[in-house]
Specification:
Blueprint lengths: L1 H8 L4 H34 L2 H16 L7 H14 L3 H29 L5 H4 L7 H21 L1 H8 L3 H4 L2 H19 L4 H24 L18 H22 L2 H9 L4 H22 L2 H10 L3 H16 L1 H20 L1 H4 L6 H27 L3 H23 L7 H9 L2 H14 L10
Helix pairs in contact: 2-10, 2-14, 4-5, 4-8, 4-12, 4-15, 5-7, 7-11, 10-11, 12-20, 14-17, 14-19, 15-19, 16-19, 17-19, 19-21, 19-22, 20-21, 20-22
Length: about 450
């Protein structure tokens, strides 16, 4: 009986079955990832003190800003490659892959050279609000962290290839594998060395880079040998196809980064780097709401692209409706996480450690509301992104990014709401996901999208 029920899950429309297999595999991978991720934070906090950990988190937040220079090429490639694969056009697929690697390599190579020279003139102690004695350490740490990040910038395209081929579970495994290796190495560091930001920087930068190198070599010599990047297939005349779509994703990413990735920097500036730690610990726990739902919706981006190309709109409607029902279950998961949060933090980090870390109920509730609204929008955004109708989303998020920092400062300076101000400002600024995205989806799926709604 149980076997029959499990077997039925993997029956039905080919596109749906493929998505379900990815979801189940991703849950298994993410389950390991969650455990390893929480252990990694605990080991890292034992290796560094609270202030050093806050410095590390804030410094690495700056990495997100450098994703600006991807200019949306990754997501542009995902859509164009998914379209080519749906049409069985391997020649165009290889051209898109090769051209993306070429453009991205040139862009990030130039940025890397500029950064390496500029870094010697950047005073990280001012940016991170730390003592001057840490200046040399932070300069060297920045070179290590950003140097390997620039390498991963291009290497991570292998994950885009897998997602375009509706295999997000495999792409999602790279991070957990890297985290497991990092956990082992950092634990060894705690046994034989004193807490060092430089040692931590080396480990957390080298390991994920090596994982991506191995994955790139493996897949382009096996599953994707027929679309592997090649100098002979670089055709910049097709860059326009990638960049037209990619530029919209680029502006969306910039807006999202301003709202979602500047929080650590704002907290460090107004409250000190030590307050970044409680914010990130709470964020880590309640981001499980988004993590769970992201696993479920991830396989559908490329699937929606394929369905749109083949005009299989009934499948799209049925899938979005089912995703909405699944989202409703997140409300109960959120309530459960809130009820166990204090006990969880004590078990996770230890009661003694938590005596010095204050995570307020206001911060917890703010994060729950934020993640529930964000994931609600994801039900519809997966389809909107998959079909590349991004103009409304782009303008909405640009407005949100413009008002985010002023609203945050207002909450901090005028209302004195504390570190949860950044979360509440994010809720206000990200009005597109819960309010505009459902309406946009309705217009597209019913062929009522005209003008800006259809661009």
């Amino acid at each position: 009986m149980l076997y029959r029920k499990i077997s039925n899950i993997f029956k039905g429309h080919e596109r749906t079955v493929k998505a379900r297999k990815n979801i189940f595999t991703s849950f298994a991978i993410k389950g390991m990832s969650i455990i390893v991720g929480f252990l990694l934070i605990r080991v890292t906090l034992n290796y560094l003190n609270q202030t050093e950990y806050g410095i590390w988190i804030t410094l690495t937040s700056f990495i997100s800003w450098f994703t600006f220079f991807e200019i949306g090429l990754g997501n542009g490639l995902k859509n164009k490659l998914a379209e080519s694969l749906a049409k069985n056009d391997n020649k165009m697929a290889r051209i898109y892959v090769s051209t993306t690697y070429a453009i991205l390599s040139m862009v990030i190579g130039l940025i890397a050279v500029i950064f390496f020279f500029a870094n010697f003139f950047i005073d990280w102690t001012i940016i991170l609000n730390t003592g001057k004695e840490l200046g040399p350490t932070l300069t060297n740490l920045a070179l290590i962290v950003f140097g390997f990040f620039f390498m991963r910038f291009v290497l991570k395209l292998i994950g885009t290839i897998l997602r375009a081929d509706q295999r997000p579970a495999i792409a999602g495994a790279f991070g957990p594998i890297g985290n497991l290796i990092k956990l082992i190495v950092i634990y060894i560091l705690t046994l034989y060395t004193e807490g060092s930001l430089l040692y931590l920087g080396w480990v957390l930068s080298i390991v994920p880079t090596l994982v991506l190198i191995f994955a790139t070599v493996y897949f382009y010599n096996s599953d994707y040998k027929h679309i592997a990047p090649s100098i002979n297939h670089i055709e910049f005349k097709y860059a326009k196809d990638l960049l037209n779509l990619g530029f919209k994703f680029f502006l969306i990413q910039i807006s999202a980064l301003v709202m979602f990735q500047s929080s650590n920097i704002i907290i460090a500036q107004y409250y000190g780097p030590e307050e970044v730690t409680p914010y990130n610990l709470a964020y880590k726990l309640f981001s499980m709401i988004n993590m769970v739902f992201a696993i479920i919706v991830a396989p559908f981006w490329a699937a929606f692209t394929e369905a749109w190309v083949k005009m299989d709109l009934n499948w799209v409607k049925k899938t979005v409706r089912n995703l909405f029902y699944i989202w409703m279950g997140l409300v109960f998961i959120s309530l459960f996480l809130y009820l166990i949060s204090d006990t969880f933090f004590d078990v996770w980090l230890g009661t003694e450690k938590m005596k010095s870390i204050n995570i307020t109920d206001r911060l917890k509730i703010s994060l729950i509301i934020y993640f529930l609204l964000f994931t609600f929008g994801s039900v519809f955004n997966m389809f909107i992104n998959g079909v590349g109708k991004l103009q409304v989303q782009m303008y909405s998020l640009l407005i949100g990014a413009t008002i985010f920092i002023p609203i945050t400062i207002f909450f901090i300076k005028i209302l004195h709401w504390g570190i949860e101000s950044v979360v509440i400002a994010s809720i206000v600024s990200n009005f597109y996901s819960p309010f505009v995205a459902p309406f946009h989806y309705y217009k597209l799926i019913n062929n009522r999208a005209h003008g800006i709604w259809n661009k």
